[in-house]
Write a structure and sequence with these properties.
It is a single chain. By secondary structure, this protein is of the alpha+beta class. About 35% of the residues lie in helices and about 20% in strands. It is built from five helices and five strands. It has helices at about 20-30, 50-60, 85-95, 115-120, 125-135; strands spanning about 35-40, 40-50, 80, 100, 110-115. Strand 1 (about 35-40) and strand 2 (about 40-50) form a beta hairpin. Helix 3 (about 85-95) runs parallel beside helix 5 and helix 4 runs antiparallel to helix 5 (about 125-135). The two termini are about 25 Å apart.
């Protein structure tokens, strides 16, 4: 099964020049911990609640700070044509709960979460991804 069959296609995004307060507001409303950052349709980063609360505050940034200053540029993505098992392995290795899904031109097509894998698959994909996420340690990535 391909990741395109289980991903969420309607994804809220934010632009790099928008203030982090708008990103935080979206996360609060959507009860989400991250939001993809796009330039047009092209994915350029991710910003997380941790980026704002820890990195932003630690460096003295305020709510009007542009998203680009706190977002993660080195993002881990799934490709729209990848198999679910391959994406689950990637999520486990990266220790993340969700991955943006992009096409061959790096355009954002959707997002896949552990919940999507658990809800839409009958195999062990979600369990495989979860095992890596709950492992202690590692550098925060997204």
């Amino acid at each position: 099964m391909k990741i395109s069959e289980v991903m969420t296609r309607e994804v809220q995004t934010i632009q790099p020049d928008q203030p982090v307060q708008e990103a935080a507001s979206f996360m609060l409303t959507a009860d989400a911990g991250s939001i993809p950052v796009t330039d047009g349709e092209r994915l350029v980063g991710m910003i997380t609640d941790r980026d704002i609360a820890v990195r932003g505050i630690a460096k003295g940034h305020g709510p009007d700070t542009p998203v680009r200053e706190l977002m993660t540029n080195d993002i881990i993505c799934a490709r729209i044509d990848q198999d679910i098992e391959e994406v689950a392995t990637k999520m486990s290795q990266a220790q993340v709960r969700r991955l943006p899904v992009i096409d061959e031109q790096d355009r954002l097509c959707g997002i896949v979460s552990l919940g999507d894998l658990a809800r839409e698959t009958s195999d062990d994909s979600a369990q495989q991804a979860l095992e890596g996420v709950v492992q202690p340690g590692g550098e925060h990535r997204q």
